[in-house]
Amino acid sequence: MFSKGTITIPKSYSPLLFLLATVCIYLFAGYAVDYLSSSPNPGLLAIAIAADLIITVAILYYVLLIRGRGWPVLSIVPLCFLSILGAKWLLPSEHLAIFDYSHFILIPLELAIIGIVGFKAYGLVRRYKKDRNQVGTPPDILVGLQQAAFEITGSKGFAKAVAFELAIFYYTFLSWAKPLSQSTNGFTYHKKVGYTPIFMALMCMALIELVVVHVVVWALGAELVAWILTGISIYGILWLIGDYRAVLRRHIEVNENELVIRVGLRYTAVLPLNQIQYIRKWPTKKPFEKRPGFMNAVVFGKPHYEIQLSRPIKVQRLYGMEKEIHSFGICIDDRERFEAILHELSHGRLNVSTLSK
After folding, report:
1. For the chain, which ranges sit under pLDDT 50?
2. Which among 96, 115, 253, 323 could disulfide-bond with 260, CB atoms 3.0 to 4.6 Å apart, if both were Cys?
């Protein structure tokens, strides 16, 4: 279409235009490759072809699809990798030496992505903390990381996965500097079930397993496999530490409109108070049974309360994965205060009853 003497391309045509432009670039590159053998400077021509396939295609992608269609910025990363593979496939083997150091691009690129997400997360958490301080509630780091990652990537699923990994790093290494804090309407859920000694036992078992498996596999002559298994075990140990630190800091909260359930980094659920049908105490002698639509959102053992909703809600799990749940089991250390605040904030509608056997 035409507008004031200029040509305006409809956004819906941007993917097709990018595809056609990319095909033309590859056709031109294939035509240029035929002249490498007769070129007075074939090395320089090979570099120009590779730059055209990688840089020019990336610029077109940014202009037409990222700026033009609002696609996630990070989507340009796999495009660059595919362009490098395309250039390697197109150029003759004697000119592939220019790609010998291409893998070093990954290191600064990954550091840059983590740095940008971390910087944005820091700003968002500070802003979030300022807003939440009005009601005396500590900020949720995972929420800040998810918001920062989403602003960068534009993809909720990818942002939640990235935020989960960054949250493990934060709670494992950076959460020790600040003292533990608890809001007025916040509740811990790990003390009554004795999760700290359970965590210590899991850590001892994980460390023993790490050493034993590494030594045994190494003795069998599979050195590479031994180091791979060791790396996996170390990641598992860091995950255990990060989740434990998150258990200490990410509390269950009750506010005027919501009951926010958090269990370390494992589960996050926001329950609107007006959708809660009932909350019942779970008898000590009643056995725990799994059933469809029920989530036992505790760090260990049986729940103290069962919460039934009028309709299912989505619960965020590991790496941002979601599942619809309509009934929850939770643990609360200070049950008397929890029941009193829940009764008060629901204006007397929610009274904790006893679960029938």
Report:
1. 1-6, 135, 356-357
2. 253
CA–CA gap between residue 214 and residue 234 (Å, rounded): 11
pLDDT computed for residue 271 by the predictor: 94
Measured from the Cβ of residue 214, the count of other Cβ atoms closer than 10 Å reads 17
* pLDDT at residue 357, as a whole number: 42
What values do phi and psi take at 265, rounded to 5?
-105, 5
Q: What is the C-alpha to C-alpha distance for residues 177 and 174, in angstroms, rounded to an integer?
A: 6
Does residue 181 belong to any structural domain of this protein? no
Of 36, 70, 100, at which residue does a domain stop? 100
Q: Are residues 295 and 307 in the same domain?
A: yes
Round to whole Å and give the CA distance between 286 and 296: 14
Residue 77's pLDDT is: 75
> What residues form DSSP beta bridges with 323?
315
C-alpha 345/C-alpha 332 separation (Å) is 17
Shared-domain flag, residues 278 and 327 = yes
Number of domains the chain contains? 4
In total, the chain counts a number of residues equal to 357
Whole-prediction pTM: 0.68
Domain containing 116 equals: 108-174
- On whether both 7 and 60 belong to a single domain, the answer is yes
pLDDT value for 266: 93
| 3-state secondary structure string across the chain | CEECCEECCCHHHHHHHHHHHHHHHHHHHHHHHCCCCCCCCHHHHHHHHHHHHHHHHHHHHHHHHHHHHCCCHHHHHHHHHHHHHHHHHHCCHHHHHHHCCHHHHHHHHHHHHHHHHHHHHHHHHHHHHHHHCCCCCCCCHHHHHHHHHHHHHCCHHHHHHHHHHHHHHHHHHHCCCCCCCCCCCEECCCCCCCHHHHHHHHHHHHHHHHHHHHHHHHHCCCHHHHHHHHHHHHHHHHHHHHHHHHHHHCCEEECCCEEEEEECCCEEEEEEHHHEEEEEECCCCCCCCCCCCEEECCCCCCCCEEEEEEEEEEEECHHHCEEEEEEEEECCCCHHHHHHHHHHHCCCCCCCEECCC
